[in-house]
Amino acid sequence: MATDLRLPTDSIVMPDKDSFLNEENPFEAMMSRFDRAAQLLDLEPGLYKVLRHPEKQIIISIPVMMDSGEVEVFTGYRVLYNTSRGPAKGGIRFDMNVNLEEVKALAAWMTWKCAVVNLPFGGAKGGVICDPLKMSAGELERLTRRYTHGIMHTLGPDSDVPAPDVNTNERVMAWIMDTYSMHHRHTVTAVVTGKPVEMGGSLGRREATGRGCMIVIKEALKHLGMKLSGTSIAVQGFGNVGSIAAELLAKEGCAIRGISDRTGGYWNKGGIDIDAALKYVKQHKTLEHFPGGEPISNEELLTADVDVLLPAALENQITSKNAAKIQARIICEGANGPTTAGADSILDEKEIFVIPDILANAGGVTVSYFEWVQDRGGYFWSEDSVNERLTDIMRRSFADVLKLSLQHKVNMRTAAYMVSISRVATVHRLRGIYA
Ligand code: NAD
User: Which CA distances in Å does 274 have to 196, 266, 279?
Assistant: First the structure.
C-alpha cells in the first residue's frame, strides 16, 4: 500500500527573527534556513530526516612527536554530510576553535553549495584542533600526515576530496596528496584540490572565489536595473576573496569606497585606489595605516552608504543588532555565514537583495571541481578557459536561483536552499534507500 510521504505542514517549526537564542551557532543557523526551504518544497518526512543528519562523522586522536621530543595528542574531525550526488568535497581547517558542531555545519553548507552550482559532488569538512602559528613546519607536516592516515579510509578521488580552508594551504594539500599516494603506491593527484599548479593544481583557482563574487554582483545589478559603472561598493576583509573581488570590480568601473581587514577600515568617497591598497598589503602584510582613505570602524563600513556591501571576512557580521542600519541595496556574501538567520527577515523587510554565501562564494569550489576534472583527465586548461567555464556556471546558477525566487516570491537565500535541496532530494528519490 502506498504510504503518504507528505510532511504535515505544521511539523516544521518556522524560524522567526526573535527565536534565535543562539544566533551564532553555525549548525542552528544553517538548519533554520534548511527547514524553511524544506517546508516550501513540501519535502517528504523520510527525506527530511535523512537530509538533516550527516552521513558520517569521524573523530580521531592524532599523536604527534613535537620538536621538543614530547608527544602531543591532537583531535581531528572529518564529517561527510551527504554523498548522494558524488564524492564528498570540502576543506580542512587547522584552528583552536574547531569543534564537531561547526565541522558538521560547514559540511552541510558544502553539500548545498556544490548542489546550487550543480557540481557532481557531495559535501564534507574536516578540521584539527591546533594552533598552527605556534607549530614548526616539521610539526605541521607530521600532524598533517598522521591526520591524513587517520582518515585514509574515507579519502579518495571517488569518495572524499579535501581542499584548503582556515590555516591550511597549498603546502598542506601537497602533504596530504603525498601521504595518500605513498599508501596507494602511485601518485593520485585528484585526492585533494587547491594544490600547487606544478603538481596538478588549476590555473585560476586562487582568484576563483573573488571572481565568482564579481560575476554574481554583475548579474544582480543587471536584474535590479542598476548600472555597473560607478556602482559604489564596500568590502569587509581584504584577503583572498575580498581583495580579488575588489580588484576585479574596480577594473569594471565600480567605485570601491570602503575596505577593511582585521586591523581596521578605510573610506574614500571618490573610490579607493585598489592597486595601491594591494601593493600596500604586499609590503606591510595588513592595511594598518593605509594612507589611501579615512579610517573607519568595522561597524561604519558595514552600514556605509554604498550600493553593494561585500562581507568577505568572517561569519556572524550582519546580525539582528545591526541589520536595520544597513544601507546597501545588494549584499554579496563572499564569506561563509556572514549573516545570521536572525538578520534575514530584517534585510527582507528593507528589501535588500542578498546573494547568499552558498551561491556567492561558490566560485572557489567550482574551480576546485575543474581541478579534479583536469587531474582525472590528465589534461590542463588555459586560465582563460577556466575563467570562461566559471563565468558560465556562476551565471547559470544565479539564473536558476533567481527564477525560483521570483516563482515562489522568496528571497535569494531561501531560493538557493530550495534549488540545492531539491537537487539532492531528487537523487535520493531516484537512488532509493538501500536496505
Ligand atoms: P583570508 O584569510 O585570505 O582573508 C580574510 C580577511 O579578513 C583578511 O584580510 C583579514 O584581515 C580580514 N579580517 C579578519 N577579521 C576581520 C574583522 N574583524 N574585520 C574586518 N576584516 C577582518 O580569507 P579568505 O580566503 O579571503 O576567506 C574569507 C571568507 O571567505 C571566509 O569566510 C572563508 O570561509 C570564505 N570563503 C573563502 C573561499 C576561498 O576560496 N578563499 C571560498 C569560499 C568561502
Answer: 26, 12, 8
CATH 3.40.50.720 residue ranges in the chain?
208-360
- List where CATH 3.40.50.10860 sits in the chain: 54-188
DSSP string, 349-376: HTT-EEE-HHHHTTHHHHHHHHHHHHHH
Question: Where does ligand 1 bind, in terms of residues with CB under 6 Å?
Answer: 209, 236-242, 260-262, 298, 312-314, 334-336, 361, 364
Reply yes or no on whether 279 is catalytic: no
Strand-pair category, 264-267 with 294-296: antiparallel
pLDDT at 106: 92
Catalytic residue among 104, 125, 195, 218: 125
Nearest to 63 by CA among 76, 53, 82, 78: 76
Residue stretches of the chain with pLDDT short of 50: 1-21
pLDDT number for residue 240: 93
The topology under which CATH files domain 208-360 is Rossmann fold (3.40.50)
| pLDDT tens sequence across 48-70 | 999 999 999 999 999 999 999 99
What is the assigned CATH class of domain 54-188?
A: alpha beta
Candidates 242, 270, 239; CA nearest to 254 is: 270
Ligand 1: which of 214, 314, 316 to mutate, most ligand atoms within 8 Å of CB?
314
| 402 alpha carbon – ligand 1 mean position (Å) | 26
Quick one: pLDDT at residue 16? 39
Residue nearest to atom 1 of ligand 1 (CA): 239
Q: Which CA distances in Å does 44 have to 239, 253, 415, 421?
A: 42, 47, 18, 12
